Amino acid sequence: MTKWTPRHEAPEPLEGNVVATITGGTVIWFVLFLVQLPFYGWFDDHGHLWWLWTCLAGGGLGLIGVWYVRKRDAAIRRAAESAPPH
User: Fold this and answer.
1) Most buried of 19, 57, 62, 71, CB within 10 angstroms?
2) Distance between start and end Cα atoms, the chain
């Protein structure tokens, strides 16, 4: 099993503007839903109606994601402010 043992440590995770990333993805899901909405009949006739509902679900879950990452960022900021200086 030593053949599959990593030889170096994992890199640190990248921290970026997570709120903007999740918000952008959520907007894209809602735009895709709105773009497909006029073609509801075609999607229904061809058995692809799930495409429409997938976009709506992605937008809804994205809203939960935006709420979550905003709370996470606020908690990280609070922890950094209350931590003793090194």
Assistant:
1) 62
2) 41
Nearest-angstrom CA–CA distance, 19 and 22: 5
Cα 3 from Cα 15, distance rounded (Å): 31
What does the mean pLDDT of the chain come to?
91
Rounded CA gap, 70 and 47, in Å? 37
Q: Answer positive or negative: Cα dihedral of 68, 72, 74, 78.
A: positive
65 close to 24: Cβ distance less than 8 angstroms: no
pLDDT at residue number 6: 72
33-71 per-position pLDDT tens digit: 999 999 999 999 999 999 999 999 999 999 999 999 999
